[in-house]
Design brief:
Blueprint: H1 12-17, H2 20-30, H3 33-41, E1 48-52, E2 55-58, E3 63-65, H4 81-90, H5 103-115
Antiparallel strand pairs: 1-2, 2-3
Organism: Moorella thermoacetica Y72
Keywords: Aminotransferase, Transferase
Protein name: Ornithine/acetylornithine aminotransferase
Amino acid sequence: MGGLTGEKIISLETALQAGRQETRDLYRRYINPGLATMLGLLDFDKAFVRAEGMAVWDKDGKRYLDFLGGYGALNLGHNPPEVLAAVKEAMGRPNLLQASLNPLAAALAHNLAQVTPGDLERVFLATAGLKRWRAP
């Protein structure tokens, strides 16, 4: 088992510069060989370098419409300016301190209670959907 340093770790910069074949090989080895093969056969194992709204662009500048939208994770589209501005404003602040009350989490819970139908009184914030089944 390797450590967190050394030549075996791929840096962010290296990953972003990886070619199509290298990315496909890594997917086949570590993630999903079937998906890598299928996307290769469909010529859709491209490197997308830009995204805005519901469009993405490959490294050759060809524009594609993203009809999946991250299966709902991108319901506001790719890189919406309002979301990017909010993220930029929140960056650098402590946000995962469990021994404190987070004002952003409190505001989010309030806002969810305001826009959710019915009489929502409690919000349980979790890292994944499965956690909802374990909520008190």
